[in-house]
Amino acid sequence: MRSAWALVTAAMAAESVCAVKTGSARLSRRHLVERGAFTGLTFSAAWLPSPAAALKVYADGNDERCENGEGAACERIAGDNELVRRLQAQSRLNRAKNERELFDKTVRNLQYSDYFDALEKNLVQLPNSSYVTLDGDTYKLLRKEGRIQPGAVDRLLPEGKTAKAAFIEAANDPEFVCSRGFTCRQATDGSLDYNAFKRSLYAKQVEGVVFQPPHGDAALVLVLGLDQPLKVDMKGWKRSEMANILKRLDVPNNLAQFE
Question: What is the pTM (predicted TM-score) of this model?
Answer without folding.
Answer: 0.40
